[in-house]
């Protein structure tokens, strides 16, 4: 998983390192680009490639790299060679905003995949919109990103027409989880914790609200800070609450430590979270303490989809970095959507002056069967694929328990 990629399609950028000014540059000799002349179109990637959340961030990068390699080998867009420029946002919103500006300044970029974190996306959306540059996130789930700040009241307004996502929203994911905990697990009392971030706080809030609507009781709520490692005070509070389950809104970096400290303290209750926890790294770090814990994640298990078999084989044999199981397939499909849109815009290698806007328009109409399911977007830019899956740690691995849909209305 940490081996050097066999095919390196990523350019490591520093300020001023890339000064491309022509929209669709000619030729070039970037390593691994398979560039044999013609027009170069860049697909940008923004994700945490180091530090917090990097296991899933690298999975996003690798999914895009494989899609681009496939497109170049199959010559999906005649006269065009695709390249990847991946930038590390370190899961920090200000860095994401800087990366967005850098990608906008590169005139060869006709689409961007990412970011991983909803909080980072909030700082990037306006930058991309001002340049008519399309972005597709394979992982953002905060409803307000596509439906506006008043979505809870039913007043849904799309803030940015350049923003799309292949992941479902927290409204669906939180409700699906609450329904399962109350009706299937028969848990009546839960404790809810979040990491104060856009994704984590939003997901935890929706879960708590939906759980209470079912008739359950939220025994207590609390918050942690990203980077925290000592949860002794919180663990005591959870134990004393009498909760039958801990729901956590946030990423795996903190939850994998929290669940271990919780079990070590004698609180033998499962921890449940969302797709931000769905990575083998969670189990590797928590060890036996992770056994019995739950997550919900977007779509159906990628390794059960016949269309994804070739992708997974390439991922494993190519030594690509990160975890493909969380967002790798959705990243591949996001990049493929951009490639298909470019194919409808760039003819005979000629890039029109308004190519970015045309790509946005084409993405709104896109409709194809991806390796992780159908790819298409509704009037808000949300995915039309509403499936999601609940997983449980069983014998040291994530095992799918239930796949379905949830009506959030």
Automatic annotation (TrEMBL):
Record CDD domains: PBP1_ABC_LIVBP-like
Keyword set, alphabetical order: Signal
Secretion signal span: 1-19
Keyword Transcription: no
UniProt entry tagged with the keyword Signal: yes
Residue ranges constituting the Leucine-binding protein domain according to the UniProt record: 40-396
Homology family: Belongs to the leucine-binding protein family.
Protein name, as recorded: Branched-chain amino acid ABC transporter substrate-binding protein
């Amino acid at each position: 998983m940490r081996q050097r990629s066999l095919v390196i399609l990523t350019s490591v950028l520093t300020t001023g390192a890339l000064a491309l000014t022509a929209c669709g540059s000619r030729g070039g000799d970037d390593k691994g680009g398979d560039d044999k002349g013609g027009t170069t179109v860049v697909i940008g990637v923004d994700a945490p490639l180091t530090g917090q959340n990097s296991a899933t961030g690298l999975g996003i990068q690798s999914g895009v790299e494989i899609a681009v390699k496939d497109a170049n080998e199959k010559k999906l867009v005649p006269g065009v060679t695709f390249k990847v420029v991946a930038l590390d946002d370190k899961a920090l919103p200000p860095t994401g905003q800087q990366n967005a500006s850098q990608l906008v300044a590169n005139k060869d970029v006709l689409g961007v995949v990412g970011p991983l974190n909803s909080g980072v996306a909030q700082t990037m959306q306006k930058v991309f919109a001002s340049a008519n540059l399309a972005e597709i996130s394979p992982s953002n789930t905060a409803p307000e990103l596509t439906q506006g700040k008043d979505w809870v009241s039913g007043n849904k307004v799309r803030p940015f027409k350049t923003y799309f996502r292949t992941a479902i929203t927290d409204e669906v994911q939180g409700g699906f989880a609450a329904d399962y905990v109350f009706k299937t697990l028969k848990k009546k009392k839960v404790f809810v914790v979040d990491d104060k971030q856009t994704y984590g706080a939003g997901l935890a809030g929706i879960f708590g609200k939906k759980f209470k609507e079912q008739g359950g009781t939220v025994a207590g709520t609390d918050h942690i800070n990203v980077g925290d490692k000592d949860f002794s005070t919180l663990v005591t509070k959870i134990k004393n609450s009498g909760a039958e389950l801990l729901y956590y809104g946030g990423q795996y970096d903190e939850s994998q430590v929290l669940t271990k400290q919780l079990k070590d303290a004698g609180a033998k209750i499962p921890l449940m979270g969302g797709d931000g926890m769905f990575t083998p790294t969670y189990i590797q770090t928590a060890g036996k303490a992770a056994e019995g814990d739950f997550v919900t994640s977007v779509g159906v298990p990628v390794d059960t989809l016949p269309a994804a078999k070739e992708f997974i084989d390439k991922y494993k044999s190519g030594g690509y970095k990160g975890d493909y199981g969380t967002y790798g397939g959705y990243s591949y499909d996001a990049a493929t959507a951009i490639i298909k849109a470019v194919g409808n815009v760039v003819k005979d290698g000629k890039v029109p002056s308004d190519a970015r806007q045309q790509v946005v328009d084409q993405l709104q109409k896109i409709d194809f069967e991806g390796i992780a399911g159908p790819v298409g977007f509704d009037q808000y830019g949300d995915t039309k694929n509403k499936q999601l899956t609940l997983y449980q740690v069983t014998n040291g691995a994530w095992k799918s328990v239930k796949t379905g849909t949830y009506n959030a209305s």
